[in-house]
Inverse folding.
């Protein structure tokens, strides 16, 4: 039976306290905080992080399909999954697809992956959902929206969570949307979208699946469902008839925020982190209809708890000090024109060097074993020519050999910390250090690589690897 | 291999006023330096058989010199080797003379940096500018600061101690530059000022960085046997060194960022040609590449002018001052002159040439005895340098 073999998640390191929003806009105090992607992060990089976490025990070349869900793809036209696949160093012989317009996208991808495996067209499939939605300043969404991602590896072998059934509804009901030219979400009168839409459609789908499986709420150990915000989440628990104290999974709205297409799957990962074998879990997602899944954990759910997933990422955080930093990170203002020439980028170069730039491949000399990055055709140590194998450096642990902190660089977050990373297993990497507290950077501190958007020169999102202090 | 020692003479030199020359074009800089050199040698532009032009950013190449100087249809060659570009002009000119193709040549280096519209150097240049990732976010101070951080750590200097040692270098350079009328920055500074200055790239603050400057310098050269017909006090080339590193410092483990390997290799070549065994004792003056204070520190050690790791002790003892054992950057260095990239190698050579002749501008700067001096520049960044060294001296 098809099921979840592994899970992973990612939450950006920065958190913005909602009281900072209250302070800036002089409004009544709000509690909690939301996860804010660093300035160099977007839906693609969040997805890569969640994917890396999920594929901890899976050889990358064994993944046969990749489905990516988001409502905020960095490119309006151009697939995101192909970039995620490259950063994850997946093989070229891969089916991939983006689900890029619905907040229900995460479970659309899940259902599609399930069907592909059931149909035998792929042995396994990686489902990644990530979102990085920017809310209009001083809008209701601003305190609600958060950034994050989740990933599930589906397969038929070594299943940790069986997918027993799924029920799907599609609805033309319209509640949240953006047109081609809208940067920020639009919505309609609150009572209409809640009472006529969310509170009717989701319960209907849940009811259908429960009836079909002859289940009542007491048969379900944990229910995981999407909600636009905390208030509506509580109301929905009552409508569905589950005990909010014992059965309902915290949807992370208070501590992460509403992560759009990733929201339901992130909450599911949080539920699986606490799950024991033999428990039934109900997953219900909403948006343009509803998807409901009946899941049951197996013994193997205990074996995959070493992921960073939700708990570790939640704990490893840094405060975003001010709203000013936030608007800089999300590019919410127009800035003084830069006097330096704009960054440029050549696609030809990116294509030639794709294995280095996107896959973080260095090379290991077959004659002397020296690891080098970028790839050197002639070994820098023994001068053997064209005698090497490519090695992926992105998963390697390393130490900070030396660093500097540039206060004049044209980047959204100064100082721009340049670093020399020496990997424990050989190889050196020169790159920017991100997700760092400048006061705590020290030579020899443990660091790891993370996939980020380096800059947007020539209208291209130029993704590349940066280092960061080992997150958790 | 034969040594180049004493085969070629410099019979005239010129150097522009260095600074933010808002009203001066690249062509004006070329004319200013070349005509001082012509006058110094007692020649006219029509006497020149060929010219070598060092410039880093200029795209019109030889034309930027041939046109303003009206070197009508003479062979003019543009050379470029990053921050060692000025030395390349001198080297090319020498080899032209020694091949006996030409008898009297001009070597000139210049750079016009202050049309950029911002107060620093651009980051990536040329083809590198199109690379999607390699150069992004990097800067010259950011790259050199990697070496400072590591040097502090390796030699057990606390952040404050390390900053203070670097500050002493800048204070010395400003002290020297303040008395040099051709320098760009002519103000004495204090250690406290250096320490309190705005940060550029930690640990390098504003006063750890050289200026960004317009300037040019030129030399008229001939074979040594012809030199006396121009002047008595000519100087001769004693040796060249040029080392392009393999550039693996950031590519594979091993390089430790506290040593300039390329400088070590380049000066070894030049010392051998010049017959120098103990540079600290035999050299009378050294003009070295101090684009940043840490660059001067490590270059001093890498040129074997100071024992490795011993810089703090030596500078505290005044070793590198005008009256010290081995004066370094007596001109004020790149710190005071800025670094118009193509010009610096020629500009440093100009300082040594004048010191040997006893004609340092401002008598307070003149060394009592100066017979042999070394000019040093390195281009690129720690882990990937090309280094050029020129030694000149009394015949």
């Amino acid at each position: 039976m098809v099921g979840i073999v592994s899970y992973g998640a990612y939450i950006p390191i920065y958190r913005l306290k909602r009281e900072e929003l209250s302070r800036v806009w002089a409004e009544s105090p709000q509690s909690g905080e939301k996860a804010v992607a660093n300035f160099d992060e977007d839906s693609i990089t969040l997805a890569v992080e969640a994917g890396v976490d999920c594929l901890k025990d899976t050889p990358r070349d064994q993944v046969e399909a990749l489905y990516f869900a988001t409502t905020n793809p960095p490119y309006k036209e151009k697939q995101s999954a192909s970039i995620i696949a490259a950063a994850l160093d997946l093989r070229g012989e891969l089916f991939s697809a983006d689900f890029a317009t619905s907040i229900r996208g995460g479970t659309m991808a899940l259902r599609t992956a399930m069907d592909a495996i059931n149909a035998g067209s792929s042995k396994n499939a990686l489902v990644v959902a990530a979102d990085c939605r920017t809310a209009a300043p001083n809008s209701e969404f601003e305190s609600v929206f958060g950034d994050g991602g989740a990933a599930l590896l589906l397969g038929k072998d070594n299943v940790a969570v069986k997918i027993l059934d799924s029920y799907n509804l599609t609805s033309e009901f319209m509640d949240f949307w953006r047109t081609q030219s809208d940067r920020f979400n639009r919505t309609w009168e609150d009572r209409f979208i809640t009472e006529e839409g969310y509170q009717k459609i989701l319960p209907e789908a849940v009811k259908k699946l429960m009836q079909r499986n002859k289940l009542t709420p007491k048969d379900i150990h944990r229910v995981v469902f999407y909600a636009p915000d905390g208030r509506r989440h509580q109301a929905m628990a009552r409508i569905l008839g589950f005990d909010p104290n014992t059965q309902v999974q915290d949807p992370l709205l208070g501590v992460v925020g509403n992560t759009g297409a990733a929201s339901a799957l992130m909450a599911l990962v949080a539920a699986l982190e606490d799950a024991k074998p033999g428990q039934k879990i109900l997953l219900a997602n909403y948006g343009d209809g509803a998807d409901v899944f009946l899941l049951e954990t197996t013994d193997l759910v205990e074996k995959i708890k070493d992921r960073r997933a939700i708990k570790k990422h939640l704990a490893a955080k840094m405060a975003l000090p001010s709203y000013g930093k936030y608007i800089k990170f999300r590019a919410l203002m127009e800035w003084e024109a830069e006097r330096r020439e704009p960054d440029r980028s050549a696609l030809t170069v990116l294509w030639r060097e794709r294995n280095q730039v996107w896959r973080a491949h260095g090379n290991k000399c077959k004659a002397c074993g020296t690891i080098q990055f970028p790839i050197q055709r002639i070994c820098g140590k023994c001068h053997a020519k064209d005698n090497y194998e490519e090695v992926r450096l992105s998963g390697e642990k390393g130490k900070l050999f030396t660093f500097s902190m540039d206060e004049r660089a044209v980047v959204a977050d100064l100082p721009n910390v340049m670093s020399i990373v020496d990997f424990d297993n050989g190889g050196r990497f020169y790159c920017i250090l991100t997700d760092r507290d400048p006061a705590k950077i020290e030579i020899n501190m443990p660091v790891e690589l993370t996939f980020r958007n380096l800059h947007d020169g020539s209208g291209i999102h130029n993704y590349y690897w940066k280092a960061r202090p080992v997150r958790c | 291999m034969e040594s180049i020692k004493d085969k070629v003479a410099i019979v005239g030199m010129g150097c522009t006023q260095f600074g933010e020359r808002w009203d001066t074009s690249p062509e004006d800089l070329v004319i200013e330096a070349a005509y001082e050199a012509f006058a110094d040698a007692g020649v006219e532009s029509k006497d020149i058989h060929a010219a070598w032009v060092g410039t880093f950013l200029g795209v019109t190449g030889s034309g930027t010199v041939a046109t303003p100087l009206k070197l009508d249809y003479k062979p003019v060659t543009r050379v470029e080797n990053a921050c060692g570009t000025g030395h390349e002009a001198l080297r090319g000119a020498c080899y032209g003379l020694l091949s006996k193709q030409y008898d009297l040549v001009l070597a000139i280096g210049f750079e016009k940096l202050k049309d950029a519209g911002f107060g620093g150097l651009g980051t990536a240049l040329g083809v590198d500018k199109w690379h999607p990732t390699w150069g992004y976010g990097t800067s010259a101070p950011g790259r050199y600061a990697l070496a400072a951080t590591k040097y502090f750590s390796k030699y057990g200097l606390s952040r404050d101690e390390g900053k203070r040692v670097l500050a002493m270098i800048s204070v010395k350079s400003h002290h020297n530059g303040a008395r040099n009328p051709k320098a760009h920055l002519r103000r004495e500074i204090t250690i406290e000022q250096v320490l309190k200055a705005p940060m550029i790239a930690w640990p390098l603050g504003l006063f750890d960085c050289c200026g960004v400057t317009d300037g040019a310098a030129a030399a008229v050269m001939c074979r040594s046997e012809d030199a006396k017909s121009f002047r008595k006090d000519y100087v001769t080339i004693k040796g060249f060194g040029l080392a392009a590193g393999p550039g693996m410092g950031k590519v594979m483990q091993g390089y430790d960022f506290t040593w300039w390997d390329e400088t070590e290799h380049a000066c070894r070549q030049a010392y051998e040609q010049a017959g120098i065994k103990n540079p600290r004792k035999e050299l009378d003056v050294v003009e070295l590449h101090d684009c940043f204070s840490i660059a001067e520190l490590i270059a001093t050690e890498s040129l074997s002018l100071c024992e490795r790791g011993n810089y703090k002790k030596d500078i505290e003892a005044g070793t590198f001052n005008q009256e010290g054992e081995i004066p370094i950057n007596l001109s004020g260095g790149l710190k005071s002159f800025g670094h118009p990239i193509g010009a610096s190698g020629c500009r440093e050579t100009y300082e040594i040439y004048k010191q040997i002749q006893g004609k340092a501008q401002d008598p307070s700067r003149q060394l009592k005895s100066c017979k042999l001096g070394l000019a040093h520049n390195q281009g690129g960044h720690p882990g990937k340098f090309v280094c050029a060294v020129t030694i000149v001296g009394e015949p």
Q: What stands out?
A: The mean pLDDT of chain A is 97. Residues 23 and 468 of chain A are 31 Å apart (CA to CA). DSSP finds twelve helices and 22 strands in chain A.
